[in-house]
Amino acid sequence: MRLLPVQFRPTPLLEAASSVIRTLKGAGFDSGIVGGGVRDSLLGRSLSDCDIVTAARPEELAKLFPGSRLVGASFGVSLVRHGGFEFEVAAARQERFYLDGRHPGEVRYTRDLAVDMQRRDFTVNALWYDPVTEIVHDAVGGIDDLERGVLRTVGEPEERFSEDYLRMLRAVRFVSRLRFRLDPAAERAIRRLAAKCGELTGERLRGELSSMLTGPDPAGAVRLLERTGILAVVLPEVAVLRGVEQPPEFHPEGDVLTHTLLMLEHMAKPDPLLAWSVLLHDVGKAVTQSRDETGRIRFFGHETAGAETAAAILERFRFSTAERDGIVQAVRNHMRFASVLRMKLAKLRRLLADPNFPLELELHRLDCIACHGILDVFVFLLDRLAETPHLQTLPEPFVMGRDLVAAGVRPGPRFRPVLEKVFDRQLAGAFASREEALACALRLLDSGG
């Protein structure tokens, strides 16, 4: 057991957690802050996560904190509100006999916190801190791994990953977030077990992948997913983009996956919708690649094929309807920016006023940066928005269906295309009044639209 004296930076969160631990220790139960909060504090980061492990059993904890609430009866996890914060307090335990790649078949309480640490995933997450004595306790070599910048499992890697297959994705996330190296033994185990990631639910996969894509090194995370074989299991539609050649005159950077990774590297903010739009924007290229008579590579309709593939992926990962619709629209529309400089005013106004436009504009910027680097269209659109900000809001149409009915026209299928044409002309500034627009609509109806 290595004991490291250290004084964490005082914060209201730490003080409230310390008060809970003092109460527990005062009643004779060894306790401490555990997990990511300890790890991040030792790395010089602010303490934002404060889980507590204790030798007290749930019923003993409830006597000390009558307002506590048992939320994980099988694992002895309670919620304790104290000092304006809510803490997850877990009874120290042992777990054995994982039968389904996630849930232990046997859970036993223990009074020894060092024993509890043996069931945890990675050594850097298996440290506990006693704020009363101001000592970090390390029974697994986590402090050394922190100092070396290595992510290593507690115990034998294959056994640890087999307990919960999601730990393989967590390993990738921690490596990319902490900028650590993955322990070679852990990487070998992941390669052997990668296929098991296919047994994970879409919701659990989405959570880990989204955390990677919005972390400090999303491209590095995807590269490690590819290297370990996980990418081919959980996102085969993205994995197959490796080796899909592109025309070098437009994509000197290389194949489709290289282009996608460069876009991820240039993301300026951790926006999950943008990150997923980037990751999936070119998934249609793998199935639409062709060559013309000169040998030039083409991807006709890849945005349409990509939108269909993206929709299936997002459904598989159980994204909300709103999230799925925004990402799929961005994938489907990402090629329309090529015609912006030739767009008529009405079409341009519809583009600028689209609620999804900010996402699509940033996707376009990243798309350009990661290939030819020409940002003419992006700058043009920014200039238009700066000069005429009202273009981002569409006006109320001069003419609607009820106006045509009031003019004596029987409703029918012709209404919609005629109203769209009239509204386009309105956006282009063709009418000075509603009367002019209505007269135009009636003429179009009389002439067959």
Describe the structure.
The protein has 449 residues and is of the alpha+beta class. The protein folds into 4 domains: 2-141, Beta Polymerase, domain 2 (2-Layer Sandwich); 149-234, Hydrophobic Seed Protein (Orthogonal Bundle); 240-394, Hypothetical protein af1432 (Orthogonal Bundle), CATH 1.10.3210; 401-446, no CATH class. It is built from 23 helices and 14 strands. The protein has helices at residues 12-26, 36-42, 58-64, 113-117, 142-148, 157-163, 166-178, 184-193, 202-213, 218-228, 230-234, 236-239, 256-265, 272-280, 285-288, 302-316, 321-333, 345-353, 357-369, 376-387, 401-406, 415-427, 434-446; strands at residues 2-5, 31-34, 51-54, 69-72, 77-82, 85-91, 93-98, 104-109, 127-130, 135-138, 150-151, 181-182, 290-291, 297-298. The strands form 4 sheets. Strands 1-10-9-2-3-6-5-4 form an 8-stranded mixed β-sheet. Strands 7-8 form a two-stranded antiparallel sheet. It has a two-stranded parallel ribbon with strand order 11-12. A hairpin with a 5-residue loop joins β7 (93-98) and β8 (104-109). α6 (157-163) crosses α8 (184-193) and α16 packs antiparallel against α17. The longest helix is centred in the first third of the chain and has 15 residues, at 12-26. The termini are far apart.
